């Protein structure tokens, strides 16, 4: 297995926890894993991206180049649009349809791009878009968007559902484990 996954979002959406869960699951299964996190003013709502490389062989570099991502987990529409060039032909993008306005849009200096979902559909391999925020809210917390998206992507990754549950139980704070198990299950259904 050689799989490159980009996890992209906005600061505070849980992209880093998603990468920790995914990376640790792959390690538990005996794969070589490399992670690289990039925080762009993440505490102020800026862009956050994590590169996750999983392989049977040694992974030499943690960074995913343009056109090399097998999967992109996008926690927000504009981030999906921004990182689209990194998706390889035939790759899959899981997109939370939430829109978080960046500061230039908020202050009127820029406009939020129109028809992002149409562009993603036309220019990428496969787009699986859904309202992960609504699903997370129904599960009990908006902060569960990350695990909802992982649940959706888990259908395309070679790990069993019970293995995902084990990693959630191990790396999520105990008081949030049950919530995240439900969010994961709902993501798999989405």
Report on this model:
This protein is an alpha/beta fold and 190 residues long. The chain has a single domain (2-189), classed as Pyruvate-ferredoxin oxidoreductase, PFOR, domain III (Pyruvate-ferredoxin Oxidoreductase, domain 3, 3-Layer(aba) Sandwich). The protein has helices at 15-28, 77-83, 103-106, 116-123, 132-139, 145-154, 161-171, 177-189; strands spanning 2-10, 32-39, 47-55, 69-74, 87-96, 126-130. It has a six-stranded mixed sheet with strand order 2-3-1-4-5-6, with helices on both faces. α1 crosses α7, α5 packs across α6 (145-154) and α6 crosses α8. The radius of gyration is 16 Å and the shape is globular.
Can you describe this structure in just a few lines?
The chain has eight helices and six strands, in the order E-H-E-E-E-H-E-H-H-E-H-H-H-H. It has 190 residues and is α/β, with parallel strands linked by helices. The longest helix is centred in the N-terminal third of the chain and has 14 residues, at 15-28.
- Average pLDDT rating: 90
Low-confidence regions: none
Rg of Cα set: 16 Å
- What is the CATH-assigned architecture? 3-Layer(aba) Sandwich
Q: Assign the CATH superfamily.
A: Pyruvate-ferredoxin oxidoreductase, PFOR, domain III
Total number of beta strands:
6
**In the CATH hierarchy, what is the class?**
Alpha Beta
Percentage of helical residues? Answer: 25-40%
**How many separate domains make up the residues?**
1
**CATH topology heading:** Pyruvate-ferredoxin Oxidoreductase, domain 3
The main sheet comes to: 6 strands, mixed
Q: Largest sheet, order of strands side by side?
A: 2-3-1-4-5-6
Order of helices and strands: EHEEEHEHHEHHHH
Classify the beta-strand content into a percent band.
Answer: 15-25%
* Count of alpha and pi helical runs: 8
Q: Which word captures the global form?
A: globular
* End-to-end gap: 25 Å
**Structural class estimated from helices and strands:** alpha/beta
């Amino acid at each position: 297995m050689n799989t490159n996954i980009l996890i992209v979002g906005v600061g505070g959406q849980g992209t880093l926890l998603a990468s920790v869960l995914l990376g640790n699951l792959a390690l538990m299964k005996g794969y070589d894993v490399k992670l690289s996190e990039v925080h762009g003013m993440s505490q102020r709502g800026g862009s956050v991206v994590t590169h996750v490389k999983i392989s049977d062989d040694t992974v030499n570099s943690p960074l995913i180049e343009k056109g090399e991502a097998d999967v992109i987990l996008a926690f927000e529409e504009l981030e999906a649009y921004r990182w689209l060039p990194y998706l390889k032909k035939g790759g899959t993008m899981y997109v939370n349809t939430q829109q978080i306005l960046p500061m230039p849009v908020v202050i009127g200096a820029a406009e939020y791009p129109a028809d992002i979902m149409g562009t993603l559909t036309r220019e990428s391999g496969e787009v699986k878009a859904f309202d992960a925020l609504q699903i997370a809210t129904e599960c009990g917390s908006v902060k569960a968007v990350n695990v909802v998206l992982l649940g959706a992507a888990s259908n395309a990754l070679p790990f069993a559902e019970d293995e995902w549950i084990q990693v959630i139980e191990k790396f999520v704070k105990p008081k949030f484990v049950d919530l995240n198990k439900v969010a994961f299950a709902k993501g798999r259904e989405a």
